[in-house]
Amino acid sequence: MHILYVDESGIEDLSSGTSHFVLLGVAIPSEQWKSLDSALGDLKATYDLRDAEIHTAWMHRRYSEQESIADFDALSRPERRTATELAVKRRAGGVGILGSAKKVKAYRRESRAIAPYLHLTRAERIACLEELAREIASRRDVRIFADAISKPDFKTGHSTPYEMAFEQVLTRFQAYLEVSGSTGIVVHDNNATAAPRLTKLARKYHASGTFYRKITNIVETPLFVDSSLTSMIQIADLCAFSLRRLLENGEDGLWNIVETCADRQGSTCVGVRHYTGRRSCTCRICKAHGRGAKRASAR
User: For a pLDDT cut of 90, what percent of the chain falls above it?
Assistant: First the structure.
C-alpha cells in the first residue's frame, strides 16, 4: 500500500496571485511511514520545531523584524524569540505600518503564521527545509507526482486548474501503482473549498476512470486531514512550494534536492508535468518530461 500525501502551492484564481498553480503528491510506502515520520520529527526537533507545522512559504521568506535587530544571529534562540516577538508586537499595534486598518489586520495574520519560527535565523530556516528535503530524497521508494499549471496559458472550460491538476496527479499515481503492483490511498490537506469537488471527482474517476486511464489501484475517495497534524502533508507542501518557485523564480535550491523522487520511466520523467497550453517551453521540467521545446499538450 502506498499513501499519497497531496498539497497545493499557489493560488488557483486565474486573475490574481501567483503565475502558477501546483498540485503535488508525495507517495510513501505504508511500511515506511513510521520510520520516516520519526526521522522527520527528530529533524524538526533539532530546530525546536517538533510540534510545529512546517509551512514552507512562511519559513522561507525574510522577516524584516529580525533584520532590524542588531547582531540577531549572535543571540541565543530564546533571546531571538523574545526580541522578535517585541518587534512584531510593536508593529502589529500599527507602528511602522503605512496604510489602512486592513493592512494592519493582514500583518497580524502574518505575524501569527511566522510565530513558530521566530527563534530561527533565515539561514537556519532554510537549512531546516533542506534537511527535511534530503531526508525525503534519501528514501529510495518515495515518489513525487505533480502538475504545475501556468495560469496565463490555462483556458477556462469545463474544468478548473485544481480539477485538471487533480486528474493529472491521480492518473500518474495510478500508472505507478499498476507498474509496481500495489494499491494506494490519497490523503489531502484539508481544504474546505476543494474537498467537496475533489471527492465528487474521485467518485467519478472510480466509476468511469480519468480521461487517460481507469482508476483500479486507488481505494476510497481522498481523506482530508489538518496539515498541522501530519508531517507528511507538510513535506508535500515543501515539495509543491519548491516546484512552484523553480518555475516562477528560477529558485532551484529545494527542488534540486527532491527532484530525484519524481517518478520516471527509464530516462523520462513521467511523474511531473508543466502545463503551458500551446506555448512551447524549454524549462527543465518540460525537458525532463521528454518534450523539450515541443508544444505542451494536455497529456
Answer: 80
Instruction: Tell me how many domains the chain contains.
Output: 2
Taking 90 as the threshold, does the pLDDT of residue 287 lie above it? no
Asked whether residue 57 is assigned to any structural domain, the reply reads: no
Q: Are 14 and 154 in contact (CB under 8 A)?
A: yes
**pLDDT tens-digit profile of 85-128?**
999 888 777 555 556 677 778 888 889 999 999 999 999 999 99
Long-range contacts, 153-160 (Cβ 8 Å, 24+): 153/275, 153/276, 153/277, 153/278, 153/279, 153/296, 154/14, 154/275, 154/277, 155/277, 156/14, 160/12
H or E element at residue 186: strand 184-189
What distance in Å separates the CA atoms of residue 84 and residue 167, rounded to the nearest whole number? 43
- 57 and 243 Cβ atoms separated by less than 8 Å: no
| H/E run at residue 130 | helix 122-137
* φ, ψ (nearest 5 deg) of residue 7: -150, 165
Q: What is the pLDDT of residues 9-46, one digit of tens each?
A: 999 999 888 999 999 999 999 999 999 999 999 999 99
d(CA 137, CA 40): 12
Estimate to the nearest angstrom the gap between the alpha carbon of 173 and the chain centroid.
Answer: 16
Residues 35 and 91 in one domain: no
Residues in the chain: 299
Q: What DSSP letter does each residue of 35-91 carry, written as one string? A: HHHHHHHHHHHHTT-TTS---HHHHHS--HHHHTSTTGGGS-HHHHHHHHHHHHHHH
pTM of model > 0.90: yes
Which residues are bridge partners to 24 per DSSP? 7, 146
> Domain containing 221: what range?
2-41+133-288
- CA distances in angstroms from 201 to 162, 197, 220, listed in the order given: 11, 6, 12
SS3 of residue 171 by DSSP: helix
